[in-house]
Amino acid sequence: MNTNQLIASDLLKINAVTLSPNEPFTWASGIKAPIYTDNRITISFPEVRTHIADGLAKLIRNKFPEVKVIGGVATAGIPHAAIVADKMDLPMIYVRSKPKDHGRGKQMEGSIDENAPIVLIDDLLSTGKSVLNAAQALKNEGYNVIGVMAIFSYELPDSTKNFKEAGIEFDTLTNYSTIIEQAKAENSISDDELVVLRKWRDDPWHWM
């Protein structure tokens, strides 16, 4: 089992990912989806969070060897960033969704050199807008964001488009395609349900 499959299996095992092809969820955006993800619960499972941290650290070393700072996106990315920064013996920062409305109005917490290459960590990517907003906030303050890492991606076309437009590279430990194939391999979904889940991947906006 490779890392993509291991993390997919972990997320399914702890119900961080729920597949429901016959009774789809309605996301906050209004989109109907046969999947719901809550990666926040991963921090409650030591073995799973270790697999995630080891996987992220390895991926970051391979893809961004020049990294000098690990950043966490509030709130779900913060604990994973903290563990990864510790494993890599690197400074850590975190970024709020918006500046504080008191004090000095800071959006980033931490103390780093402005030129230090930063990799931001989030728990999942849908369209990528939240983590890209965090990256832009750092760039606006003169910081150097070189990439984004996450545990999971829905593989929405908008995500790839948004990262390309922002000029930021990204990667994830696992993704929607791996999740549904792993679920089938573990016999938690049927062949017919796999067909439905693949249809959503191929056209998430018009699959029903």
Provide a short characterization of the protein structure.
Pathway: Pyrimidine metabolism; UMP biosynthesis via de novo pathway; UMP from orotate: step 1/2. The chain has 208 residues and is an alpha/beta fold.
State the share of residues found in helices, binned by percent.
40-55%
Mean pLDDT: 94
Q: Tally the beta strands.
A: 10
Sheet with the most strands?
6 strands, mixed
Secondary structure class reads alpha/beta
**Apparent shape:** globular
Low-confidence stretches are none
Tell me the Rg in angstroms.
Answer: 17 Å
Instruction: Please list the strands of the largest sheet in the order they lie side by side.
Output: 7-6-5-8-9-10
Counting DSSP H or I runs of 4 or more residues, the number of helices is 7
In sequence order, what are the helices and strands, one letter per element?
HEEEEHEHEEEHEHEHH
Give the termini separation.
Answer: 33 Å
Question: Per DSSP, what share of the residues sits in E-state strands of 2 or more residues?
Answer: 15-25%
Task: Name the features.
two-stranded antiparallel ribbon; 208 residues; six-stranded mixed beta sheet; alpha/beta
Protein described:
By secondary structure, the chain is α/β, with parallel strands linked by helices. The chain has seven helices and ten strands. It has helices at 3-13, 46-63, 77-88, 129-140, 157-166, 176-185, 191-202, and strands spanning 17-19, 25-26, 32-33, 35-37, 69-73, 92-95, 108-109, 117-125, 144-153, 169-175. Helix 4 links the parallel strand 8 (117-125) and strand 9. The protein is globular and about 55 Å long. The two termini are 33 Å apart.
